[in-house]
Amino acid sequence: MAAATAQMLVAAEPAISKKGRSRKALKQKNSSSNDSSINIVPAAAPPPESSVGKENGMSFSQKKTRKGDPKAKQKQSSEESCFERELREMQENLEKLKIEKEQTEEMLKAREESLKQKDQEQEKLKMEIKKLQKIKEFKPTMAFPIGISLKGEDQEKKDKKKVGPAKKKPSPPYVLWCKDQWNEVKKANPDADFKTMSNLLGTQWKTITEEEKRPYEETYQAEKEIYLKIMGNEKRQHEAMKLLEEEQKQKAAMELLEQYLEFKQETEEENKKKSKKERDPLKPKKPLSAYFIFSNARREALLKENKNVLDVARITGEEWKNMKEKQKAPYELMAMKNKEQYMQEMESYKQKKDEESENLRKQEDELMKLQKQEAMQLLKKKEKTENLIKKSKAKCQKEKGEKNADPNKPRKPASSFLLFRNEAMKKLAEERPGINKSTLIALISVKWKDMNEDEKQIWNHKAGQAMEVYKKEMVEYNKKLEAEAQTN
């Protein structure tokens, strides 16, 4: 095979030299070989063949390139453009992937931060829950009164509707007469409606005499008296229950307040024991003693010698004990100077504190003055309203006919209960400011009922003395009236 290939090469050389295209042919062969190499790179590698087949293939491709050079160039350019496009697309895809990677990393960082914040918040909540669990809860031990009504207005209206037969309003005499005469009129007029029946009964009622109406009116009056008595008793009971409920509520509120104050005091004492006193940053620090000044000066040298803290304390203590008074004197002088300076600073600190306390006291006094002024203004407004009410009442009494009353006629004295009420009202008003007048009167009446006969006898004696004076005055007044009548 090698000899055959050599003969083929020898035979090909004179043919090229005859045509005179040796150099050009060589150049073309080189270019075709290069072109073939460019075209072969992206494609798959061909299967192995013999050396003769390769040479024949190369010679065949060279012949083709010689014949159609422009077409080959077009193919090469198109293949190069396709390759460049693919490279560009690959580069663009890589850039897009880089951008997406950066975005995902940022998102992950943001999520990690948000998770950290949530973890911190959860830890804070857990700490707060633990603190709240340690704090004591206010649990009142009192029992609320049973009489306090928890019904609303709607429920009360419904209860009023569910009334028994005795509590119903009595029917008037006309209705009672209609009930008796209804059957007779219905027999006479069986086809009559309710409207016609009511018209017929109304016309008959007008024709009836007063003697026939009298029994129905008497029954109505009797039923009315019974109804008014029942309703009056119920009204009084309702008012009494309201007063009792208000008193019970006040007692319950006072008991709750006392229990809460005790609970608050206990918790404050416990917190004081647990929490240490915070030091005032403006307060001057106490000065160091002579030994501590010496130990601070000696510590630096000992630490440079790589001594421990315990060794430093031990060495300085032994040295201070072995030192003479002359050696200790400079440190003691330093300590004395520091102490004098500390005393001066403490005096200035106390003066500042006293000034601040005085300023606070002045501010509190000014606030109290303002509050008193506001209270006086409110009191004046209240007095004005009360005076206006009194004036209006006086006018109404004058209009009714009290103008003609004799001013010289002596007035009846107050009873024992009224005397007790006037004095008790003043005391209760001072003890319980802002309480209603109705509740005051109710409380006074309860106290009067609970009093013994011996205690009531004091007020009865006062009322009796006042009554005797009143009787004497009335006797004299009547004598004057008789004398004036005889002269006239």
Report on this structure.
- With 488 residues, this protein is an all-alpha fold.
- It contains 14 helices and no strands.
- The chain has helices at 2-19, 22-40, 51-67, 69-134, 153-161, 173-188, 194-207, 210-274, 290-304, 309-322, 325-400, 416-431, 437-450, 453-487.
- Helix 2 (22-40) packs across helix 3 (51-67).
- The longest helix is centred in the C-terminal third of the chain and has 76 residues, at 325-400.
- The N and C termini lie far apart (188 Å).
- The model is unreliable at 1-68 and 146-152 (pLDDT under 50).
Secondary-structure element order, as H and E? HHHHHHHHHHHHHH
Continuous helix count? 14
Report the uncertain regions: 1-68, 146-152
How many DSSP-defined strands?
Answer: 0
Terminal Cα separation, in Å? 188 Å
Helix content class: over 70%
Major sheet:
none
User: What structural class results from the helix and strand content?
Assistant: mainly alpha
Shape from CA axes?
Answer: flat
Summed over residues and divided by their number, the pLDDT gives a mean of 75
Radius of gyration: 61 Å
How big a fraction of the residues is strand?
under 5%
